[in-house]
Amino acid sequence: MNKLLTTLMTTSLLTVIGCFGVGAASADDTPAPPPPPADPGTAYALGGAHVMAIPYDEYIRQTGAHWFPGMKREKVDYPAGQIQGHVLERLLPGIGRVGEQIYPGIGLDGPSIGESVDVGAPNLQAAIRAGGPGRAMGLSEGALVLDAVKAQMANDPSAPPPDQLSFATFGDPIAKHPFGESFLTQMFPAGSVVPAMDYTVPAPVESQYHTDQFVSAYDSIADFPDRPDNLFALANSIVGLATGHTAVAFTNPSMVPPQNVRTTVNSRGATTTTYLIPEQHLPLVLPFKYLGFDEGTLNQLDAILLPRVNAGYSRNDDPATAPVQVDPVHGFDPLQITAPINEATFGGGGDAVSELINGALSLLSGNGH
User: Fold this and answer.
1) Which of 318, 313, 282, 317 is nearest to 300 (CA)?
2) Euclidean distance between CA atoms 181 and 93, whole angstroms
3) Please, what is the Cα angle at 68 between 63 and 69, to 5 degrees?
4) Which of 177, 209, 234, 348 has the most CB atoms around it within 10 Å of its CB?
5) Contact indicator for 336, 249 with CB cutoff of 8 Å
6) Closest CA to 65 of 273, 250, 275, 279
7) Alpha-carbon distance 214 to 261, whole Å?
8) Element spanning 233, H or E
9) 114-155 tens-digit pLDDT
């Protein structure tokens, strides 16, 4: 699957490569901030969309593990519906049955994201109330469940007190943060229904609980350019979805420069701390790393593209306050940090689809196993 990801990212890159000019990449070598203290109690964990060929349970087990070590972990079940499942079954009734016969678990007739959140929210509430103090953690679609529960508990006198519960989101699809905001919140006003997702974008709610939100720089889901007419920024954010959206859950504090950590306080005195986590190279450049290009070449490509990409984000208008968004020294490599999780699950051929795709792509690229 890693090679498939590389191929997809490379294809995206070739659409804009002809427009290179001159610029300079940025990196930061200052020490990373220390990790937040590990919470006592339980980590109530929810994964993202349950897609084929992903080690779903292991992803949930590892989400936030480097940020909040030592916590007892409880998986909170919910349908984790896919956009493609919800839409395909409605466009082509019966395709779900056919898909299951070809590959069980493919999920072509799954529930919508909105339906999944409606199931996940009461499940998470029940787990929290039964399990006691801790922290709810959600990756991608799972973060939407956390957002729903925070809103439900905001004015609930029976909700756990703020010193007994906190939240952590990774790649939240409705994130609003000091560095920017998500695609959904930019494109859909509160109260509107996102068609393919069957999901109503909620209005912001003042929660009594502390939240840590982790965002991969340039992830189009959680960090969409606020100037999307900038085609460099738009293309880079689309590839950033493939590179950083899921992998951000497996990062660690050493990857975040201090200027990429910001805390806000709401009217109820609750804090939200945002961590904007840079990758080693621009998402548009990372495919070249996986194709074997040396670091010098990768840094030159970053230098060329970075000013054009960053012009798509107003946070970069003032260099004195702009965050570090590419860091070849401390930034994360998405494939590198997800590889141990995938290998622990699929190992020596445990996932047939991944092995078939890897084998085919090895032949196409001339690399044997």
Assistant:
1) 282
2) 36
3) 95
4) 209
5) no
6) 250
7) 10
8) helix 231-244
9) 999 999 999 999 999 999 999 999 999 999 999 999 999 999
Instruction: Name the residue with tokens 């490509």.
Output: 301
Question: Looking only at Cα atoms, what is the longest distance across the chain?
Answer: 63
How is residue 89 written in tokens? 């079954």
Distance, in Å, from the CA atom of 240 to the CA atom of 238, rounded to the nearest integer, reads 5
- Domain residue ranges in the chain: 2-19+35-365
- 């890897």: which residue's tokens? 358
Distance CA 156, CA 163 (A): 15
Are the C-beta atoms of 278 and 235 separated by less than 8 Å?
no
pLDDT, tens digit, for every residue of 40-91? Answer: 689 999 999 987 767 889 999 999 999 999 899 999 999 998 887 777 777 7
Under 8 Å between Cβ of 198 and 248: no
Q: What are phi and psi of 244, to 5 degrees?
A: -110, -15
Exposed / middle / buried, residue 367 (Cβ in 10 Å: 0-12, 13-18, 19+): exposed
Q: How many residues does the chain have?
A: 369
